[in-house]
Amino acid sequence: MDKLVQYAVDGHVARLTLDSPHNRNALSTTLVEQLHQGLRDAADDPAVRVVVLGHTGGTFCAGADLSQASGGDPFDVAADRARELSALLRAIVECPMPVIGAIDGHVRAGGFGLVGACDIAVAGPRSTFALTEAGIGVAPAIISLTLLPKLSPRAAARYYLTGEKFDASEAAAIGLVTVAADDVEATVASLVAELRNGSPQGLAASKALTTAAVLAGFDRDAERLSVESAQLFVSDEAREGMLAFLQKRPPAWVRPGNGGEAV
Fold it and tell me: Can you tell me which residues the record assigns to a coiled coil (predicted)?
């Protein structure tokens, strides 16, 4: 099996590094499984106090791996992929130790969910962010489980709807990341030094206070959003949106109720 997530422990820090730059660290089933394993390994290691989630290449994470071969009913496949992402985001939120996101690259689609799931997120000068789902006929459904508790409501409405690109400074201003930093590694090292002072019990209990409402949202909404995400993904409009994106042309949307006239 290809190693798509590198795992290393340095003192009290477990580093999980997304290492699939050839497809922009897309969330393939293999990468997701290896992330789960890395989180389990960190939780089982009594020396580890902090997890740092980083990446290689110019993209932190571009979201789902749409190139994965899949069989079966398209709706069932899409729903299962949504559940897979939901389970990964929940695993990060439920991790008993703080998770720091170290981001210095592009973040798209499911990558936003990873950033939102981290307890602390540091973004560097090469970071760019854009929620482009509405432009291809879908919506940021599953990632809303970790994004909406962090983003200001006005910012969520703006960037969910417009799909416009923004930088690390704006990401910090709207609550998506904790800090925009010129030097991501130095800032992460400083945060790790502060967290190292916490006891395992104290860190876990303190984190649990900040994640209780997020986990309640998973309990309430994750399955519904998985179904809704799949319904959007297999719709005619989404197929047109994704095809237009691949063909680098404007999509020919059809407005419901107007006799199928393109808009």
Answer: none
CA–CA separation, 222 and 142 (whole Å)? 7
Q: Which residue has the tokens 């992460």?
A: 188
The pTM of this model reads 0.93
Full DSSP string of 76-115: HHHHHHHHHHHHHHHHHHH-SS-EEEEE-SEEETHHHHHH
Amino acid identity at 134: A
Q: What is the pLDDT of residue 64?
A: 82
Q: What is the CATH number of the domain that holds 14?
A: 3.90.226.10
pLDDT surpasses 70 at 260: no
**pLDDT exceeds 80 at position 71:** no
Look at the block and give the residue holding tokens 């519904």: 224
Fill in the DSSP letter of residue 72.
S
Task: Give the rounded distance of the alpha carbon of 243 from its chain centre.
Answer: 24
How far is residue 121 CA from its own chain's centroid?
Answer: 12
| pLDDT digit string, tens, across residues 211-220 | 999 999 999 9
Domain count, the chain: 1
Residue 39 belongs to domain spanning: 1-182+199-262
Residue 229: how many other CB atoms lie within 10 Å? 25
Residue 192 counted as domain residue: no
CA atoms of 227 and 81, how far apart (whole Å): 10
For 192-201, the CB contacts below 8 A with 24+ separation are 192/12, 192/13, 192/50, 192/52, 192/100, 195/49, 195/50, 195/98, 196/12, 196/49, 196/50, 198/49, 200/46, 200/49, 200/96, 200/97
